Amino acid sequence: MTEFQHWLFRSRGHIATLSLNRPEESNSLILEMFQELGEITNRLRVDKDIWVVIVEGKGKHFSIGVDLSVIQSIIDYPEGPFRENLLAMQQCLDSFEALEKPTIAKVHGFCLGGGLILALCCDFRIASKRTVLGLPEVKRGVAVIAGTQRVTRVVGVAVAKEMILLCRNLNASMAKEYGLVHKVVPPEELDQAAMSLAKKFLKLPPRTVGGAKRIINDGASLTLRASQELEIDVQAELIDSPDFKEAISSYLEDRPPSFVGE
Asked: Are 81 and 137 in contact (CB under 8 A)?
């Protein structure tokens, strides 16, 4: 297990688990946590032995969002340092979202504010049926500052306005209806559900999964022609990879593939 001050990081069998580790503060997010997330993302990016990542929160809640101390610092900082710190925080989330490995948020308890934005940076979200999701920033006099479009592109403009402008919390079933979460399970089944999903990626070629993720994420903001050019570029990167050759060979030979992550 790799040691960080505010996160627990462990990996086993190509699956990494990244745990928010401030349970006594309900995993409220402080600036150092974003900085450490940036470091962790860099490690994940270069570690070929890790194929999929699960993100969870220790204790009773996934995360109640940005800590009040950070909000206070927004008031105290001059505009220049404020902009620099906020940009650095946003870039840590951007980098994690762009990680070319599948990511799964395993959410329970409160998943609020920046905690919800972190979950939305993940490709999949599985929630305990007791989870409460929401964006209470406006009540604190703060507009959403960590990527409002992450909400809007999932639930649409109308629901995003309802959640953000009215600070409306959603239960897990309503969140699933709006597309904020992919699956809702009883609390006692949450660990198993997240691990079951993660293990599905162990049967797939990791680099191809990562390339497909990049095509989906980056292609969403491109024209059709540009997105198709991106598809060509990504496949060209994979054309000589051992796993690509293994995928084709195993299909032609009618046998299970054996991927190595290359």
From this structure: no
